[in-house]
């Protein structure tokens, strides 16, 4: 989506009081500018939490078991290729159980991902976030909190980025260099959080063994090197796309509008100070 900056926001009527979006992110919207104009912005991220967490679980399984390579081998319908693929997978596939999965940002989506990899896969969960979860939340999934992002990278077999975008890379060349050698990398939130060229180099050097991506640094474009790699799974930014997510977006959008006009407050405001 094209950024909503002053060129567009300035065209909005003065009568506009609330903007309810049917989408999860808001990095394309100039929130401070809307706030300055007294416009309350609401996003619909809560509607696609389950869909994104499900997709993240699939991507985590895939970087351990390399199912995209398996699918490619099977779809050739060539017995020799199928046999080679089977042999290759026996050499590189691992069960996620007892491996350490690091989740960057244990917010709404990240926490659900952590629960799925813990209860569903038997993986050990570690996390780093600006705000630590409650003791009860940590105990439920036996999650270990790290104050230092770099310290956590060094012990993680798989890194899952589920953080919202806040204006800079959180996985750049120096971060990939600090990862445990042979680790796996998954991202389902915002592609601008990673340095895609650095990711390519980390994969080519063997610093990272495999990667699964649903989002990209310069969408809709994907780094051409990633497309060529058989240890990389790419999806077209569809993790949150399901029938249930779409209807949930519509419902939450209307709930925000109705709540604003009936109570003066919205359900999922991004800039709640407008209505305070």
From TrEMBL:
The reply to whether Cell cycle figures as a keyword in the UniProt entry is no
Reading the lineage from the top rank, the first entry is Eukaryota
**What are the D-isomer specific 2-hydroxyacid dehydrogenase NAD-binding domain coordinates in residue numbering?**
79-239
Q: Which GO terms describe its molecular function?
A: glyoxylate reductase (NADPH) activity; hydroxypyruvate reductase [NAD(P)H] activity; NAD binding
Q: Could you name the Gene Ontology cellular component terms for this entry?
A: cytosol
Signal peptide feature range? none
Location of the D-isomer specific 2-hydroxyacid dehydrogenase catalytic domain: 5-271
State if DNA repair is listed as a keyword: no
Q: Which UniProt keywords apply?
A: Oxidoreductase
Query: What protein family is recorded?
Result: Belongs to the D-isomer specific 2-hydroxyacid dehydrogenase family.
**Entry protein name:** D-isomer specific 2-hydroxyacid dehydrogenase NAD-binding domain-containing protein
List the source organism: Cladophialophora yegresii CBS 114405
């Amino acid at each position: 989506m094209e950024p909503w900056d002053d060129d567009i926001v300035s065209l909005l009527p003065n009568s506009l009081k609330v903007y309810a979006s049917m989408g999860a992110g808001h990095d394309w919207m100039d929130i401070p500018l809307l706030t300055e104009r007294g416009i309350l912005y609401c996003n619909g991220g809560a509607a696609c939490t389950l869909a994104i967490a499900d997709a993240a679980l699939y991507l985590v399984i895939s970087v351990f078991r390399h199912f995209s390579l398996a699918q490619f081998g099977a779809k050739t319908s060539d017995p020799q290729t199928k046999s080679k693929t089977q042999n290759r997978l026996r050499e590189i596939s691992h069960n996620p159980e007892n491996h350490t999965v690091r989740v960057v940002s244990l917010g709404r989506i990240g926490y659900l991902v952590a629960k799925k990899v813990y209860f569903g896969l038997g993986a050990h969960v570690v996390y780093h976030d600006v705000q630590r979860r409650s003791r009860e939340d940590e105990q439920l999934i036996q999650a270990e909190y790290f104050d230092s992002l770099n310290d956590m990278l060094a012990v993680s077999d798989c890194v899952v980025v589920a953080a919202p975008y806040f204006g800079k890379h959180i996985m750049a060349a120096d971060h990939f260099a600090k990862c445990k050698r042979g680790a796996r990398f998954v991202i389902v939130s915002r592609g601008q959080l990673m340095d895609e060229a650095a990711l390519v180099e980390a994969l080519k050097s063997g610093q990272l063994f495999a990667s699964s991506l649903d989002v990209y640094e310069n969408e809709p474009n994907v780094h051409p090197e990633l497309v060529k790699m058989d240890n990389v799974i790419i999806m077209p930014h569809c993790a949150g796309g399901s029938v249930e997510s779409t209807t949930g977006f519509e419902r939450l959008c209307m709930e925000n509008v109705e709540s604003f006009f009936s109570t003066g407050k919205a359900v999922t405001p991004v800039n709640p100070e407008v209505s305070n």
